[in-house]
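Input chain follows. Return structure tokens only.
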Amino acid sequence: MNTNDRAPLIAIAMMAARADGTTDSAEEQAVRAVVERMGSPDVTRLAEQVAGGQLRAADLAARLSDDEARRIAYEGALAICRADGVLAPAEQAFLEELRGALGISADEAAAATRTAGALADTPVAEVHTGTPPAGPLDDFILNQSILTGAVEILPDRLANLAILPLQLRLVYQIGQRHGQKLDVNQVKDLAATLGLGVAAQGVEGVVMKLVGGFAGGLLGGLVGGAARTATGAVITFAATYALGHTADQYYQQGRRLSAADLKALFTRFQEDARTIYPKVEQRIRTQASTLNLQSLLGGLRAT
């Protein structure tokens, strides 16, 4: 990816985060945090320009170097808009304006929208059809954590939309293992208590891919791309691992733990996961090398 594409890509991501009319949104904060962490210049100025309405989609689109950058811009914006649920009318309008400015065909945009919707919604909507995990629960949690870590490092921007639904499915199935009868909202509430139910989680992974230049391949892109990929994978792996084990404790004790107790458990298990990660990193990379969006979606539907 051309390094000159980074500023317009970041600006488009910020515009997508604001497209629903929300200011100081979790999405925009996630965009800024990731970009600042990765050391991209002028992020404050870009944020000010976006907030002040000084940038237009057409002008930003014209600054992108090639068709690949334009496709990255559209898919990234779509993923950010879809990260917190169904597209709002204002988000739909923004994406349509952006599509026209980027020269993305209606058919290509429709296909991307279908994929994004399926990845973001299907696992949650159909989570009731899942079955309790067989075998040792520790192994099940570890394997699901490896799966989400692998999803994190897929080069597809839209793949990140599957991470939160996969985590919600994990919690639901652990609850089943303990004889709990749950609905999706109860599962979401537990994840939200631990800071996982917000749109920022999905946005962070998308923006890391946008500005990290991962479009060229699993470990491709700009210098440092592999390190950034590993950073995203360990964060996602640790969050999923901690969520699974916290849910296990929560349901074992009849859902009587306080929010403070849950957060303390989650933090402890995150630390455990970071010590485990080096031992499973190669398994994550191996799984990512054979995983694609269609197979992932098929597996989710099969549950």
